[in-house]
Amino acid sequence: MRYSNTFLRAKVSGVVAALLLLVPHIAPPRAQPAAIAPIAKPLPQVTVSLDACGFIPFSQSYRLNYQSKLMGLPIEWTGTLGFPINESVSSQIELRYRRRTAVFLNDVSVRQLEITPGVKTYLEKQHEKDLRLFGTFGLVLAESIVSGPLQSTTDGTDIITVDVSKSYYNLGLAIGLGLEYELTPVSTIHGGLRFGIYLLDPVSRGGLGDAGGISLGLGYQYSVF
Q1: What is this structure's pTM?
Q2: pLDDT, position 64
């Protein structure tokens, strides 16, 4: 009986020793580190954009009767102030200018100035070193100024030449689609298409008609924080 107890105690001692040897190797599960939330990029106070665009008018009569003095290239210039609301949407004010000369009338020119309040919205999230798709929409407030020389006389013999001008006002809509690429944290380049239409001032009432068209442009944007 004594031998059996001794043998039993030895067996128990062996099992306990084996368990003690295993304990250091059984480590408690480690706590997973808490996920670090990405730091949100601060919104700019304002963005400033400058663009050079090629302009193709919808109206065939406009294309035939007016041309650019800049080597005949149909160039227009655009400046835009943007005011970000959140990471995807910003309100903006766009100023667009183009000047054309009449083909068949000497020294007659048309200057067109458009002010377009609207919105710019990104259609996808920003990814580092990648293109980002955006769209724009706005209301076009336009003024077209036609100017040139006019010969006049008061007695039918003494003819004098005076420079005269007349303004035509119009209302329209503009919608655009483009791609943007981030160069630095404060600057980007972009390019895209813009479709603009005029809704008022038809030729039948003495206006210039629909001087809207397609603009294809490239630009640079700078953000002020």
Answers
A1: 0.75
A2: 82
